[in-house]
Amino acid sequence: MFAFSEENKERIPQVLAKYPTKQSALLPLLTMVQRQEGYVQPEAMVEIGKILELSPGYVQSVASFYTMYHMTPTGKYIILFCINISCQLNGADELLNHTAQKLNIKVGETTQDKKFTLHREECLAACSNAPMMRINDDYYEDLTKEKIDQILDSLD
Ligand code: FES
User: Fold this and answer.
1) Which of 24, 39, 117, 121 is deepest in the core (most CB within 10 A)?
2) 95 C-alpha vs ligand 1 centroid, how far in Å?
């Protein structure tokens, strides 16, 4: 069962007012759901479809196109580890393996305490500071194993 929080219910008309058609607010509403729930479940897509007059299938097709939206429950911190060319040439594969080992999970999994979810990601447009990863909304660049350990240990 999904329901927008009271706060988000109040925000929805403000979001819709920013766009020429209500359908244009699809990505912002998907983002709103993901920030509220941590992922976008099917019931939320139905609800968004009702608000925007879009079919649930259409909402799902858009949501599934973008790797930033998650269709299954995630950890508190979602790590998107860039494995594209600049990051790869600077050791991303080894650093990703190090991160997975440190968290004791495989790529795509969530830690047992639901704190971290680890994903590979394509270029996140911080190539000049490769290798890098994004955790939720923050970028972490010029990574080394030591830096990754410090970052992960510093997150509550
Ligand atoms: S290749 Fe990693 S940020 Fe562009």
Assistant:
1) 117
2) 14
